[in-house]
Amino acid sequence: MNTIAENHPFTINEQGHLDIGGADTVYLAKKYGTPLYVYDVSILRDNCRAFVQTFKELGASAQVAYASKAFSSTAMLQVVRQEGLSLDVVSQGELYTALQAEFPAEKIHMHGNNKSREELEMAIDHNVGCIVVDNFHEIELISSLLEKQNKEINVLMRVTPGIESKTHQYIMTGNEDSKFGFNLQNGQADRAFLELTKHEKIHFKGLHSHIGSQIFETDGFTLAADLLFKKLAEWNTDYGYIPEVLNLGGGFGIRYTKDDQPLAYAAYVKEMVSVVREQANHHNMPVPEIWIEPGRAIAGNAGITLYTVGSKKEIPGVRNYISVDGGMTDNLRPALYSARYEGVLANKASQPVKDKVSVAGKCCESGDMLIWDLPVPEVASEDILAVFSTGAYGYSMASHYNRLPNAGVVFVENGIDKLVVRRESFEDVVRNDLSYE
Ligand SMILES: Cc1ncc(COP(=O)(O)O)c(C=O)c1O
Ligand SMILES: N[C@@H](CCCC[NH3+])C(=O)O
């Protein structure tokens, strides 16, 4: 038995192949080709339910908005809609995809640190549930659009509470020196508060903070809630302001390798509900609705990527490399954040480990490495490699580097597989090219 597979929510079938959602991954690789993203839809649903149910059990008013930047496609947003979640979008493209999936506009929250006039116009036109304002320029834009369109809109204010979360520097967002949001301490948030509350067409519902991503502790969220409430209490005393919503963002950590020890999603929810109730009580204010925005926690562990092994390079006494038919084009995270992953040979999933290989992508780039020193059985060309926990920020950060077509996406549920994003063709790759002759 391969112990790596045991760390991930998948099984090994009678043929000794890795199984996902009741489908044989080797069969899927043959049927659809590789590289291929495959999702177990029942895990997606379980992840959605873990958040929603816990709020329900605690009797807390809440909205769980899936952060669609983690993985957005029509089918994915249909599943999220079926599970009753709200949706966080950060661009016109993500909003457009949401509308394609018939996501109810009133459950869509529009984010972004540089929303364009067109993006805001589209959000207001479609009556999205809320715009999370990020800066003064945006307040001006929203204001002029509301006048022009004679519309009203709900707004949250994104603030940086000044918290350094324990995560990679590039995915840390709640610290003071951040491109996102209004500074809570230096008077910016107070100035924005006055601008938002005086505006007749803006309904200022409350504060938003997102402290970072891939976080394994609850204390950052507790601290953020404390700091946000301090500010809200000031506004309550000075202006009689009563917030309806407190959005504590996303960032709940998942398991990529055995070194990651994620908390149950319910643990974050329980802590948030408890601290928000405590703080509201302490400041003598009504308990606001709690909104959260998990992305990775919904999509991450539900997805794997299948590759076909090609060439091998042995450097005696140094390292053995194997190369696969994808790489940084379908999973940028190792190259961008030195992110670590685990994988198995899907066609040899029950065979004993014999070797250690480093898995290289096919791009013309030394940094295009997917996994260093992966324990594997004897590996041969044409083996199928499955990399775990690639469901978030894999497809969504894919590129066409070296003119590689983007991989397709397959959903599996109850043993039934369905193609939900077509693999790109070479025609797709040159689709927007225009001739210069
Ligand atoms: C504002 C905001 N909300 C939610 C998320 C989702 O984060 P995660 O996928 O880590 O849950 C992000 C990304 O970090 C974000 O910037
Ligand atoms: N894309 C990042 C996280 C950033 C999320 C958006 N704020 C990742 O893959 O981990």
UniProtKB/TrEMBL annotation:
Coiled coil: none annotated. The modification N6-(pyridoxal phosphate)lysine is found at residue 69. Keywords: Amino-acid biosynthesis, Decarboxylase, Lyase, Lysine biosynthesis, Pyridoxal phosphate. Pyridoxal 5'-phosphate binds at residues 251, 293-296, 393. Specifically catalyzes the decarboxylation of meso-diaminopimelate (meso-DAP) to L-lysine. InterPro entries: Ala_racemase/Decarboxylase_C, DAP_deCOOHase_LysA, De-COase2_C, De-COase2_CS, De-COase2_N, De-COase2_pyr-phos_BS, Orn/DAP/Arg_de-COase, PLP-binding_barrel. Residues 36-391 form the Orn/DAP/Arg decarboxylase 2 C-terminal domain. Gene3D superfamilies: Alanine racemase (3.20.20.10), Lyase, Ornithine Decarboxylase, Chain A, domain 1 (2.40.37.10). It comes from Virgibacillus kekensis. Substrate binds at residues 296, 333, 337, 365, 393. Homodimer. Pfam families: Orn_Arg_deC_N, Orn_DAP_Arg_deC. Its cofactor is pyridoxal 5'-phosphate. NCBIfam families: lysA. PANTHER family: DIAMINOPIMELATE DECARBOXYLASE, GROUP IV DECARBOXYLASE. SUPFAM superfamilies: Alanine racemase C-terminal domain-like, PLP-binding barrel. Residues 50-299 form the Orn/DAP/Arg decarboxylase 2 N-terminal domain. It catalyses: meso-2,6-diaminopimelate + H(+) = L-lysine + CO2. This is Diaminopimelate decarboxylase. It is an enzyme of class 4 (lyase). It comes from the Bacteria. Its EC number is 4.1.1.20. Pathway: Amino-acid biosynthesis; L-lysine biosynthesis via DAP pathway; L-lysine from DL-2,6-diaminopimelate: step 1/1. Belongs to the Orn/Lys/Arg decarboxylase class-II family. LysA subfamily. One of its GO terms (molecular function) is diaminopimelate decarboxylase activity.
